[in-house]
Amino acid sequence: MDFKYVAYTAEKKLVNGHLTAPDEEKAVAQLNYLNYQVISIRSTGSLTKFNKSLNFSFGSQVKPKEIIMFSRQMAILIESGIDIVTAIDLFKTQVKNKVFAGILDDVVASLRGGTSLSDALAKFPKEFTTMYCRTIAAGEQSGNLDMVLKRMADYLEKSALAEKKVKSALTYPIIVLVASVVVVAILVLFVLPTFTSLYSQLGAKLPLMTQLLLDVASWGTKYGLIVLGLMVAAIVGTFIYTKTPAGKINWDTLMLRLPVVGPIVQLNELARCCRTISMLIKVGLPLPDIMTMCIQSAGNRIVSKALSDVKQEMMGGEGLGQPMAKRHIFLPLMVQMVNVGEKTGNLGSTLSTVADSFEMEADDKTSAAIGLIQPALTIGIAVVVGFIAVAMLSTMYGIYGQFNAK
């Protein structure tokens, strides 16, 4: 059975943790043998099983901010002289996510069985990426695990912040666009048909603009569901296609070539690349391994392919800056700073500076793009609604004029 305990050590230090024993009496005996004064102890066997089942079904429910918090607090606890198992147990007392708590239980069990922290975390690739585990392994080998955990926390935090900024910037325009489509659909499918029947009963002669608008409304009423179905099918088909190897490449190529979006995507990808290389160099990993992990972490397959080609030429003795200069995907600033970093032996710091520069530029471009999209959407809505209002009002005045003439 598994037990969770809280106890005092011989030095009157409060500790908590888990252990396995046949029953509660034997568990207390084990703790007494370690000179622990037990304060409380309880069985957690059913809870552990429940957490493991949750981890099996919903492993992806652990959020990036929870991994960041884990990394940062583990760094603080280890730096304070607390052993890894106790540090994880202390951290787990504030974890509210049952999935994450179950993962940490498994990690602790692996550590007590003699497994290293990096290998224990590698059992959960959805939560702890290959790069994360390799970085932890480097920290274990060098004896600087606390420093490595801090750098990993900073890296993950900056990556998450960059993604959050893009999502936040796009939220408002998407809401406005959806609201615009809904408003126009309601006008065309429900409001205008009412006017159509009214004008037919009155036998009014309609202006060309109004007739055209009513014809569109009539067509939308008859074939609106079919058009909606075709649109949904097109969206689903596009989504499925982008999951195929050829579709992924074509989609990533398109994202880089779009007039406004392309430069933003490129800057974000290069910032991520620079940040990854910088962090892993400071951790102490060899450059070939760093390039492999950088390739794996790239979010765009065109960038990933370019990095693969750079790695091959780098392994051939050309360095890093020279192969990058041959490919237009890598911006001049990045190439120049890589060359400087290679010459001065300070590649990690120079690439960190480049990452900060690219992230700032990407933020500026994103804000500028959103600043253009919002008024464009507003003007578009105003034009459509104004066109409908003018068409309806002009027809109503025309009908009044015909009645007065009679």
- Main β-sheet description: 3 strands, antiparallel
Biggest sheet strand line-up: 2-1-3
Helix count, DSSP H or I runs of 4 or more residues = 16
CATH structural class of the domain at 171-406 = Mainly Alpha
**Order of SSEs, N→C?**
EEHEHHHHHHHHHHHHHHH
How would the global form be characterised?
extended
User: Low-confidence runs (pLDDT<50, min 5 residues)?
Assistant: 46-60
Write down the Rg.
31 Å
Secondary structure tally: strands: 3
Range of strand content: 5-15%
* CATH architecture designation of the domain at 171-406: Up-down Bundle
| CATH homologous superfamily annotation of the domain at 171-406 | Type II secretion system (T2SS), domain F
Helix percent reads: over 70%
Query: What do we call the CATH topology of the domain at 171-406?
Result: Receptor-associated Protein
Structural class: mainly alpha
Account of the 3D structure:
The chain is mainly alpha-helical and 406 residues long. Among the domains are: 1-43; 171-406, Receptor-associated Protein (Up-down Bundle). Helix content is 78%, strand content 5%. A three-stranded antiparallel beta sheet has the order 2-1-3, with helices on both faces. It is extended.
Describe the structure concisely.
By secondary structure, this protein is mostly helical. It has helices at residues 24-33, 45-58, 64-79, 84-92, 98-112, 117-121, 130-142, 145-202, 208-241, 245-257, 261-283, 287-297, 301-318, 321-325, 332-344, 347-405, and strands spanning 2-8, 14-20, 37-43.
List the topology elements.
Blueprint: E1 2-8, E2 14-20, H1 24-33, E3 37-43, H2 45-58, H3 64-79, H4 84-92, H5 98-112, H6 117-121, H7 130-142, H8 145-202, H9 208-241, H10 245-257, H11 261-283, H12 287-297, H13 301-318, H14 321-325, H15 332-344, H16 347-405
Antiparallel strand pairs: 1-2, 1-3
Helix pairs in contact: 2-5, 3-4, 3-8, 4-5, 7-8, 8-9, 8-11, 8-16, 10-11, 11-12, 11-16, 12-13, 15-16
